[in-house]
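Severity: low
Component: inverse-folding endpoint
Summary: output formatting inconsistent between runs
Steps to reproduce: submit the following structure tokens with default settings.
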């Protein structure tokens, strides 16, 4: 049916969703599948209204620019305020401001003038309180800024990586740049190389390769051109935004910052030609008419723009009011579509035989959402974060479908259901039970980060379906679903609007480039707390949905009291122990009681046990926490009061240098130490395998505690037992530590002796 232009007015929808990610819809290999236990349907959905104060009002480009400039001016003070090192600088990426005044400023970092990959962080400022979400918690320190591997050597290695990835015509367009790679472990000096070429299926390739500048080891290989999939000719009669230029109409949308749609005419570079028409009647629903694909592309771009704008106040992909452009009819027989951040554009192939354009609504939403992710969390396209990228784009595709609710393409939880790439009418992926595609995983496991991101997206897709609709058999918009759970327990859905609102806030406010599945759980719980209240029914449903894919545990209803480990404290030494408890009963206050506390200790109304123990011995302590509804929880542990001596003065450990010592002196004791003398050591260090740690007794006897063991693990937080019965109690005892290898550094934080 011909498409006639009509005025596009702002929609007022009740649906609210969103998610973002980077990645492709298609993959090749199909690894072994994990299975999940069928779950009975839960009760009806949980209904709730997001807090108005957590909303993020739309910002004009000028207002956003002003917030960014203000954050940029304050960046040096912010870096100091959050404890960054002297050589670290913050680079503002974006600022989000909630309706209640809370600001969330996203930064990149530099170290000694070098960009830091994986060094991004978000600073949250609310009512004078500051918290920070970091991509990498490790201390940022690089011992040398002189690379052992040359730039040319790094480029050669990167080209080798691209060859393994089957990139054709690979070449480095510019010289590698020296960076610091933070990642999830210790920071290292590295080379970043961008290799350009063509992927195996004809998609352009921009392969980012990061190489250790000292060893030459490959640290990261991530594709920056992210492919999607879908087909056109399914939108039916829709409105498209056009502009009259002279006597010719152009596919230039005046209501959405001039979004443009081009015809590449089977080319693979440039922009091609702008779609034009003489009477503003576009396409006929058939692939033989080149305008048909253009209409689907233009409508998809407009619908996705509107979705983000009207649901979340997001003004374009980067929230800066600037439009991306779209290119249809890419290549010959190209069965894919892709987002390219370098051109800030979306590109669509015509499919097999150039008769099945991949221009469906969910494809457009998927591709534009790649750009949203790049502008926000910047999730790295490998490992678990890559799977989260893929899942997020899938979720946005579903979100926009539900938002538009087209008669020809109603909302569903199927991915690529219109394109029939499998040739048998089945979709590419299923969100209710991802393993139905024969390759994706239903739930998380420790091996998930090692498989293709197209398959590791499965658990996150499954989480989102469960959170939206709940577990078990049901029918939505005429499609039958039956979603299992890993733990066999039911999940109650909260509705797709609220589920997507939680994910969108998590993505834009709490996730970082290295967020994994556990981190996504933390981010979505934080977002749910902001929007609906911590431990609200909606918050608890988020925890349930994660537990249903084997990420974290469900939260028990009522009062929850975290177990307290058995305690050992020194006589006449100050004690401070904060209990961890909460209640899921909204608004209920907690009271704390303790029995069996050692003499000299007491408990405060907030659950802080403090004081100075005055009597030697061991007692059984029972803690009881009660909320104002009368619900209680209890925990029992032992508390031993003995002769314990500690030194908590920080002592820095020089890199590959002389030994350092931390002494403590015992007086007024008779006899010798015991044959089971206990030594607790807390050393902060980025590579414990570099360290030797010794206890030196009062008479000079040396007891080896640690001799360069523990491999590449960070820190020493360990209790050792030695036979010190030949040592007199009185005198000076010393902890001696030496770093015997270059690069990593640290310090003695605390140690204590129970002789």
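Observed output (run 2 of 3):
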């Amino acid at each position: 049916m011909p498409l006639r232009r009509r005025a596009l007015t702002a929609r007022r929808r009740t649906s609210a969703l969103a998610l973002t990610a980077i990645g492709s819809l298609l993959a090749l290999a199909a690894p072994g599948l994990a299975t999940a236990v069928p779950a009975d349907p839960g009760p009806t959905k949980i209904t709730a209204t997001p807090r108005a104060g957590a909303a993020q009002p739309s910002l004009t480009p000028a207002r956003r620019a002003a917030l960014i400039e203000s954050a940029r001016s304050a960046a040096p003070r912010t870096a100091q305020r959050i404890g960054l090192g002297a050589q670290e600088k913050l680079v503002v990426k974006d600022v989000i401001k909630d309706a209640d005044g809370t600001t969330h400023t996203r930064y990149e970092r530099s170290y000694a003038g070098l960009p830091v990959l994986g060094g991004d962080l978000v600073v949250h400022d609310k009512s004078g309180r500051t918290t920070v979400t970091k991509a990498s918690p490790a201390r940022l320190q690089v011992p040398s800024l002189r690379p052992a591997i040359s730039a040319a050597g790094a480029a050669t290695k990167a080209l080798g990586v691209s060859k393994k990835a089957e990139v054709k015509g690979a070449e480095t367009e510019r010289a590698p740049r020296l960076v610091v790679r933070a990642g999830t472990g210790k920071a290292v000096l590295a080379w970043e190389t961008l290799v350009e070429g063509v992927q195996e299926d004809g998609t352009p390739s921009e392969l980012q390769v990061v190489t250790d500048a000292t060893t030459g080891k490959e640290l990261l290989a991530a594709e920056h051109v992210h492919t999607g999939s879908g087909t056109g000719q399914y939108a039916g009669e829709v409105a498209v935004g056009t502009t009259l230029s002279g006597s010719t109409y152009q596919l230039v949308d005046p209501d959405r910052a001039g979004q443009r749609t081009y015809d590449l005419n089977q080319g693979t570079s440039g922009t091609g030609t702008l779609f034009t028409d003489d009477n503003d009647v576009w396409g006929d629903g058939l692939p033989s008419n080149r305008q048909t694909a253009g209409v689907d592309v233009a409508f998809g771009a407009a619908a996705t723009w509107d979705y983000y704008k009207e649901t979340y106040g997001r003004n374009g992909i980067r929230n800066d009011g600037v439009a991306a452009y779209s290119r249809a009819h890419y290549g010959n027989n190209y069965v894919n579509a892709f987002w390219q951040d370098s051109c800030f554009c979306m590109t669509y192939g015509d499919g097999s035989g150039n008769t099945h354009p991949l221009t469906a609504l969910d494809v457009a939403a998927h591709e534009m959402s790649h750009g949203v992710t790049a502008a926000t969390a910047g999730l790295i396209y490998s490992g678990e974060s890559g799977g989260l990228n893929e899942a997020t784009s899938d979720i946005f595709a579903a979100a926009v479908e539900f938002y538009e609710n087209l008669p020809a393409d109603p909302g569903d939880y199927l991915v690529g259901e219109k394109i029939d790439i499998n040739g048998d009418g089945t979709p590419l992926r299923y969100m209710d039970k991802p393993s139905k595609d024969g390759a994706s995983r239903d739930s998380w496991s420790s091996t998930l980060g090692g498989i293709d991101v197209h398959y590791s997206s499965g658990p996150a897709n499954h989480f989102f379906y469960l959170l939206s609709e709940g577990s078990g058999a049901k029918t939505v918009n005429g499609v039958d679903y039956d979603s299992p759970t890993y733990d066999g327990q039911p999940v109650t859905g909260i509705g797709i609007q609220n589920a997507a609102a939680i994910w969108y806030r998590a993505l834009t406010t709490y996730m970082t480039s290295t967020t994994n599945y556990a981190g996504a759980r933390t981010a979505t719980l934080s977002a749910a707390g902001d929007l609906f209240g911590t431990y609200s029914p909606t918050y608890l449903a988020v925890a349930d949905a994660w537990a249903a894919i084997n990420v974290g545990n469900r939260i028990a209803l009522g009062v929850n009291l975290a177990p307290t480990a058995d305690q050992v404290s020194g006589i006449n030494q100050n004690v401070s122990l904060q209990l961890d408890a909460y209640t899921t009963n909204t608004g209920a206050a907690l009271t704390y009681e303790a029995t069996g506390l050692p003499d000299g200790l007491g408990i405060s109304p907030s659950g802080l046990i403090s004081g100075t123990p005055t009597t030697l011995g061991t007692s059984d302590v029972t803690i009881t926490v009660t909320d104002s509804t009368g619900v209680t929880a209890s925990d029992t542990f032992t508390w031993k009061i003995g002769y314990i001596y500690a030194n908590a003065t920080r002592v820095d450990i020089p890199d590959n240098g002389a030994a350092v010592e931390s002494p403590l002196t015992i007086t007024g004791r008779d006899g010798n130490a015991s044959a089971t003398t206990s030594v607790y050591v807390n050393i902060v260090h980025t590579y414990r395998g570099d360290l030797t740690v010794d206890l030196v007794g009062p008479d000079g006897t040396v007891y080896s505690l640690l001799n360069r063991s523990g491999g590449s693990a960070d820190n020493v937080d360990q209790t050792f037992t030695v036979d010190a019965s030949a040592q007199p109690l009185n005198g000076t005892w010393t902890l001696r530590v030496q770093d015997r290898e270059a690069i990593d550094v640290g310090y003695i934080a605390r140690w204590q002796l129970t002789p």
